[in-house]
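Hey L., structure's done. Input below.
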Amino acid sequence: MTHYAILTDLNKCVGCLACSISCKVVNNVPIGSYWNKVLRIGPNPRQEGGQWPDVYTYFLTVQCQHCKNPACVQVCPTEASHVLADGTVQIDKSKCIGCQFCAMACPYGVRYLNEEERVVEKCTLCEQKVAQGELPQCVSQCGGRARFFGDLEKGIESFEAPGVPLEGDKSYDAQVKSRIRLGDVTGEGCDYPVKPYKDSEVYHLPNVGNDPGFVYILRNEQWQGQE
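Output:
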């Protein structure tokens, strides 16, 4: 069964906030609210008592995880929150009564009440763009080319991002129209934009029975996404 998700290579994320801002623009997210948040983790010492420059910092992007067993869907009294055939969690605004049970049930705090419309909103994984064969806005506009989109059932190596093959045209226009697969651009050397990673360096946000779908890669640093 299809399950769309996003993979973020945290070693490549530069904290530019392009994902967060472009999301707000394309989805008309109200001022003060975000579908996609970027959290700074650090600076933290690499060893106890360590001082600068022996520290590390990375940026953790947090949004709706489009869980396999979403708690928000389980508590929704009107079935406004539901799971589509592509595995994404969506909100039918015509059914939403603004009770915010879903927002309270979400372990990641990524839902909010739209005060003007009196309905709950969150990341839709840009279903309007994906349905037309496009990438989610946060993936297509990622300044560090850290984000990839794909179907978990096909493996993260199949996830795609904007770009051209290693030997292809490197112009901006070519990269907008073309895509690269994570598995094809992972390797050693300057020709590979994604560095190799171990299974132990692949993470998810805390699983409290909801089975979050989004994937994170973090090499050589301490994962703190469970906190």
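Helices lie at 18-27, 71-75, 101-105, 127-130, 137-140, 172-177. The radius of gyration is 18 Å.

-- N.
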